[in-house]
Each structure stands twice: as structure tokens, then as C-alpha cells.
From TrEMBL:
Belongs to the peptidase M28 family. M28B subfamily. This is Peptidase M28 domain-containing protein. Pfam families: Peptidase_M28. InterPro entries: M28_fam, Peptidase_M28.
Length: 259
């Protein structure tokens, strides 16, 4: 998150839309941080009082765990049931953890997911893949049976934007996509997720390049969404800064960027 902010700032982009970077805490405790942000700041202060138009949020929840070794990737049951084509692809390519998953809603979040996918493809280096896992969920809070069926699609701060607690006086659902390396379903994180062995020894050059491509794609996407002018249209995140941020910052809990 901070690398994207650095890249845009140092390029002296002139943004025509507001860009905000936010780090949430307590995601594991009912998404307390993002809930408070959305319900007590974003909606009342920006969307209602200032009448701002919200384009969307990109939620980063683990973006560095890359593993191209066969049989290192598992998938939650609801991924397989909701997106059998994706399950087939992962199985057919050796169950490798060589992709970043982008969780979005069909139609609702398309303008965010498509722009990020375009930016990702433009960067080349197809060793690192991005998959859009678009689920059929609408703009109203689903019933219990739907939530149970899609539990792992709702297990992060993006769900706070999709289905916020202010619907009684602000009925609009807020667009958001989640970027995740699937956390405890990949490689060493199957045993080290939220454990002491999730330390700096897990960092590899491939993982840093994986994180770098994510930062580059996000930077290009934000430049597009904010209608930025100036040098910003040519910027990319630098390798050395991403490496330093990986060592120091990528272990921060949950990161948000929204336009």
C-alpha cells in the first residue's frame, strides 16, 4: 500500500479524483476497523455530508505468498462449489499457488476488476497470474443460506463495503474488490498462518516480484481511475522499495486503498 502511495506521490501525478489510503485493524474480530471507518467516517462525512461519489475500494489481504510448486494450493469448499471452472483450472495446472485471487461481484464491481485485470496483463511477466473470482451476489445483504454458501468470499474487509451497517439511512452498496493470495490455503501458510513461523524467513525473490507486480498493477489502475495527468502515467513501483517494504511493512494486518 505504501509503495503505491510513494510511486504516485514521487511521480507528482495530478489527480482529478480523491485517492485515500487506509490501514485497518481488527479484521479478525468482526472487521471492527473497516466497519468503524465505513459507518462513522466514509458514509456520514464523505458520501452524505460532502456528497462525494464513491468509485470503489481495493482491499489487500495477503498479497505476497507465491508458490509455484505442484500441490501447494488448496481451495475452500465454497470456491469449488461457486466457481467450478476455477477449481478445474487449479487442479489441471498442478494445484500451484502461483496466482493472486481477486474476489468481486458479477456486474457490481466490474469497473474495478476489469481495470486491474487490464493493468495486470499489460505488465506482462505471465509467471504471476491474476484471477477474478466473480460471485453472483447482489447489492443487498444476502440471507443466511447465501452467506453460508459464500462464507470464504465474505471473510475480509471488502464485505464491510458490500454490506455495511448503515443501510437504513444509506441504502447503496459500496463497490469493492479483495486481492488475496488465499492465506492459509497455500504452501507454508497452511501451517504458519497467524503463527510464529510466519516470519522473514518465508520471503523469497519470487515472492518479492509477485508483490512488485501487484504494486505496479495497482499503481497503473489508480492512475486510470483518478484520471491522473502528468508523469504518473509512466510510473512503476521500484524493486528496491518494494523489497524494503516487504521486509518491514507487508506483515501489517490488513490494507485498504479506495478511490
Amino acid at each position: 500500500m505504501l509503495e503505491v502511495a510513494r510511486a504516485i506521490t514521487e511521480a507528482r501525478c495530478r489527480l482529478n479524483h480523491t485517492l485515500m489510503f487506509v490501514a485497518f485493524d481488527h479484521e479478525e474480530n468482526g472487521a471492527m476497523g473497516s466497519n468503524f471507518f465505513v459507518d462513522h467516517y466514509l458514509i456520514p462525512d464523505e458520501l452524505k455530508r460532502a456528497r462525494a461519489r464513491f468509485q470503489g475500494a481495493f482491499i489487500l489481504d495477503g498479497i505476497m505468498n507465491y508458490n509455484d510448486i505442484p500441490n501447494t494450493q488448496d481451495l475452500p469448499m465454497d470456491y469449488a462449489e461457486s466457481l467450478p471452472g476455477f477449481q478445474y483450472f487449479v487442479n489441471n495446472t498442478g494445484n500451484r499457488g502461483n496466482f493472486l485471487a481477486m474476489i468481486s461481484r458479477n456486474e457490481m464491481d466490474n469497473h474495478l476488476s476489469r481495470k486491474l485485470m487490464d493493468a495486470w496483463q499489460d505488465l506482462g511477466n505471465h509467471q504471476y497470474k491474476l484471477f477474478n473470482l466473480a460471485v453472483d451476489m447482489g447489492n443487498t445483504i444476502p440471507d443466511v443460506s447465501v452467506i453460508q454458501k459464500h462464507l470464504n468470499f465474505l471473510n475480509s474487509d471488502h464485505a464491510t463495503f458490500w454490506y455495511h451497517n448503515s443501510s437504513s439511512h444509506f441504502p447503496d452498496s459500496l463497490n469493492a474488490v479483495l486481492l488475496t493470495d488465499t492465506g492459509p490455503f497455500r504452501g507454508k501458510m497452511k501451517e504458519c498462518y497467524h503463527s510464529k513461523c510466519d516470519d522473514l524467513t518465508v520471503i523469497t525473490p519470487e515472492k518479492l516480484q509477485f508483490a512488485k507486480k501487484t504494486a505496479d498493477a495497482l499503481t497503473a489502475t489508480l492512475v486510470e481511475l483518478t484520471s491522473a495527468t502528468g508523469a504518473g502515467r509512466q510510473i512503476q513501483a521500484s524493486w528496491i522499495i518494494v523489497a524494503l517494504h516487504a521486509l518491514v511493512l507487508f506483515y501489517a494486518a490488513k490494507l485498504l486503498r479506495y478511490v
